[in-house]
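Please, structure for the following, as tokens.
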Amino acid sequence: GIQATQILDCSIGFVMERVDFILVGAVGVVENGGLINKIGTYPVAVMAKSLNKPFYVAVESFKFYRNYPLCQLDLPNDSKYLKNEEKGHPSVDFTPPNLINKLFTDLGVLTPSAVSDELIKLYI
């Protein structure tokens, strides 16, 4: 049992100094080890990095996919918006691999840089 507390996204600045680590799920993990997840994940990861808090991702390997975004604008629109809505607010954001400490997967515990190796194994 890991003791956990769910908080509002906007209160992260208030509670971040008191947490031991951050654990998030994932919509997808891209080839460079970056994360695509619910909007707001990226700012949480930025704050965690600035306060030296480990940022972990729990994800199944079937969510690994061959895409290589470098920033928010590189996300394909079919991943970014709900139901063909190409205007307004995106539903997901991209968290770069340099903000992620480890990924806990069905393949084992991985570093972000190991994701591309696992994708090669899955697609060959």
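The mean pLDDT is 88. The helical segments are 12-15, 41-50, 77-80, 115-123.
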